[in-house]
TrEMBL record:
<protein>
    <recommendedName>
        <fullName>Cytochrome P450</fullName>
    </recommendedName>
</protein>
<dbReference type="InterPro" id="IPR001128">
    <property type="entry name" value="Cyt_P450"/>
</dbReference>
<dbReference type="GO" id="GO:0044550">
    <property type="term" value="P:secondary metabolite biosynthetic process"/>
</dbReference>
<comment type="similarity">
    <text>Belongs to the cytochrome P450 family.</text>
</comment>
<dbReference type="InterPro" id="IPR036396">
    <property type="entry name" value="Cyt_P450_sf"/>
</dbReference>
<dbReference type="Pfam" id="PF00067">
    <property type="entry name" value="p450"/>
</dbReference>
<keyword id="KW-0479">Metal-binding</keyword>
<keyword id="KW-0408">Iron</keyword>
<dbReference type="GO" id="GO:0020037">
    <property type="term" value="F:heme binding"/>
</dbReference>
<keyword id="KW-0560">Oxidoreductase</keyword>
<dbReference type="GO" id="GO:0016705">
    <property type="term" value="F:oxidoreductase activity, acting on paired donors, with incorporation or reduction of molecular oxygen"/>
</dbReference>
<dbReference type="GO" id="GO:0004497">
    <property type="term" value="F:monooxygenase activity"/>
</dbReference>
<dbReference type="GO" id="GO:0005506">
    <property type="term" value="F:iron ion binding"/>
</dbReference>
Length: 132
């Protein structure tokens, strides 16, 4: 997605350079040492870029679960033991009813507050990590 959006790619690169204090033509081994957990925590824009990419292109696009006992969905739909239930994170990541009219757009701002700080969504809305 960064290759498709060079302005975003450049902004991510600037953030990485700034937070790691990377020097021009620095040896890769030195750059790797500057990639600390503290530096990563400051990379809000990168976090948004990765999350937005996973929203549109989840690692597991379709997932199925087997119901181990009779259960009920939050909307009241009953699911019997032994029934397989499938959901589609790929399709869900593009649903206007979940993400708004711009659901098909690669838009990092949906993950950033007014101060540019990353904020997560409910794992039941953003299902890339298979919470359901």
């Amino acid at each position: 997605m960064l290759c498709k959006h060079p302005q975003i790619q450049e902004k991510v690169a600037q953030e990485v350079r700034k937070t790691t204090k990377a020097k021009e033509n620095e040896p890769f081994s030195e750059f790797v040492e500057s990639m600390t957990e503290e530096a990563l925590e400051k990379m809000q824009y990168l976090h948004a870029a990765l999350t937005e990419t996973l929203r549109l292109y989840p690692a597991v696009p379709v997932d199925a679960k087997l119901c181990l006992s009779d259960d009920m969905f939050p909307d009241g739909f009953k699911v019997r033991k032994g029934v397989m239930v499938a959901y589609q994170p790929y399709a869900m990541g593009r649903m206007d009813s979940i993400w708004g009219d711009d659901a098909d757009n690669f838009r990092l701002e949906r993950w950033l507050d007014n101060n540019g700080v990353f904020h997560s969504e409910s794992p039941f809305k953003f299902t890339a990590f298979q919470v359901i």
